Amino acid sequence: MIRLIILQKGQDDPRKCSADKMGRFHLAQIIHGMDRSPYGAIILNPFAKDVMSPADAQLARKHGIMGLDCSWEHAEQIFKQGHSHRLVPRRLPCLVASNPVNYGKWCKLSTLEAFAASLYIMGEKAQAEEILRIFNWGIQFLNLNRNPLEDYSKAKDSEEIKKIEAEYAPDDILASL
Length: 177
Prior knowledge:
Elements: E1 4-8, H1 18-24, E2 29-31, E3 42-44, H2 57-63, E4 65-69, H3 75-80, E5 88-90, H4 111-121, H5 125-132, H6 138-154, H7 158-168, H8 171-175
Parallel strand pairs: 1-2, 1-4, 3-4, 3-5
């Protein structure tokens, strides 16, 4: 089981916030300051140059995965501020959101979906399914993305993930990365 940590920025509607619900269900640890982040953890950053791959699994099992829960409206500003040198930034390969706010949109995942994708890619499929079950739309994320997730989980590294990503994601989405 991989430790999940959420740096909560409190910018989303608390009734819809997947990160808050993960905390309430004890599926993730909520922190409120970067100084509380574990050394060596992978931080999910949609603007990182390196892509999450199965090669990151050992690091994630040792130090955990951290998600920054913030509004997509402020994401670029928050992530461009830079984060602790003690964290390892990774972006997820392109996937389709199933959450009600961004359903069907490429690369607009909720914190829950981002964690589930990370876990699935690193071979922790049971943990991915477990966390998705807290929302009635959660398992739909796996249904929408089953083929790319399976292919991503079989890749050897970040470069291979990028090649697979190019087979699935629209060109305009890839160009914006």
